[in-house]
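Reminder: ligand-aware prediction takes two inputs, not one.
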Amino acid sequence: MATAFATTTWTGRHYIDGAWHDASGATFENRNPARTSELLGVYPRGDRSTVAAAVGAAREAFIPWRRTSRIRRGEYFDRLARLIQRDTDALAAVLARESGKILNEARAEVIEGLHMVQYVCGTARQPYGTVIASEIADKDLYERRKPRGVVAVVTPWNFPFAVPLWMLGPSLLEGNTVVFKPSEETPEIGQRLMELFIEAGFPAGTINLVHGHGEEVGEPLARHAEVDVVAFTGSYHVGSMIRRWAAEADHKTCACEMGSKSAVIVCDDARLDLACDAVTLSAFKTSGQRCVSAGRAIVHRKLLAPFIDGLLSRVSSLRFGDPFDPASFAGPLVNLGGVEKVEAYNQLAKDEGAKILLDGGRAKDANRADGYFMTPFVYQQEHRPDARTLREEVFGPHLAVIPFDDEEQAIRIYNDTPYGLSMAVITEDYRRWRIFRDECDYGMGYVNLPCIGAEVHLPFGGVKRSGNGQPSAAALVDAVTHRTAFTVNHATNIVMAQGMSADVRK
Ligand code: NAD
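Here is what comes back for the chain with nicotinamide-adenine-dinucleotide:
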């Protein structure tokens, strides 16, 4: 397998208070998931003291940054956008090499990050509050957003460029300062992003980068007393701890985007080709490692046989290979833990009595044996509340086809998971999709599309175990600001609302 560029070993550094810090103690290695014998880079392994230094720098920088004009803050993002445009191809190559995403998807992710930066820049000149009438004619009421303070940005490996920008962008624009902890699986693209923030001129301390593991950096960061908001995207397991830690701290809030068991619902009037394409993309793009990846195709029984034929003919010819090979549809899983988890769920589907339709297992040919390549696993399973494979997130190329007989049943099946992130319905009937739109639990809904492919100027978030009601991307503004009420009296005397007397001479 040839990669698009020569292999150089990257060197990681923290960035704290306007200065780079080389590893002075423990380090960790990052390896290419498509070829694990290839060492990509070595990174400093941050700890509690690194976190304390970064949070201290962010706290110190908060007041001057908050006092900087919102429009000036937006202009830093204008410069950042131009730098991302300049470096799009190089960033995509780093992202593909490190995460195993195919180059086309890696590039699309860089563009998605760019769109967030452009959105943030444009938002700087938009209103950030409202003027509201008072019942007293001489009073003006204002609702104004104020930044919360220091935001911890803790991000996953599977969108290591776009997701950090979904969080860093709104946080910094609104006047917060930030400590950014990239995933230990994708530290290099996080560091490249940091370099661009520096080149764009963001002042020292406004954004700080700490590399390291979840327990050693993510946890002390999320629990730090001087952190006001934790913006987290990742697994439910970690997100649920972050929610608890935030609840235990009086001043802290959190925005948590977590896992899913997303689905495509195929109605009996669906266009078959569109349905098969939508399910294939939803389940197997990024080898099923998107938070919104469909683990389930919920298909009307009338269409089941032709749908399965169409699906299998597509899926069996997908190429899971070198991220830099333009013929690859998707790349490897990110690590051995991911492979073992998918293998365990594939076995569980068999144990739970599923009818197996496709089971290629781990790719062991010469080109792929050194990487974490899994091929699609597709099975048919009647809906059963006790079938764990139909309810739990697998995060790999693992798809259940679940038949249904009427819409009420399809809705019950769709909602029968602890998650609620993304839902697509394939139908030609405008009355039908409205029912699914209203009755299913999700944050992002689609009609006649895959259940993947969000755009940044929409809120991105889910319900139940998928989110805590603070969506990210454009909607993160709500999580990193608090709304203040501010009342100004233009009269020379005091008149109280609700008819309350202001007479102090009685
Ligand atoms: P993960 O939860 O393992 O890690 C995410 C981040 O949390 C990493 O930076 C990690 O170092 C950190 N972390 C790990 N343990 C921690 C701890 N004890 N305290 C604090 N931080 C800790 O997730 P991942 O494997 O990187 O990403 C995959 C998961 O993310 C999937 O469940 C996927 O569905 C989810 N995801 C959700 C969205 C969304 O918007 N809903 C988007 C992308 C990914």
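The CA atoms of residues 222 and 230 lie 6 Å apart. The chain has a mean pLDDT of 96. We will return to this case in the review session.
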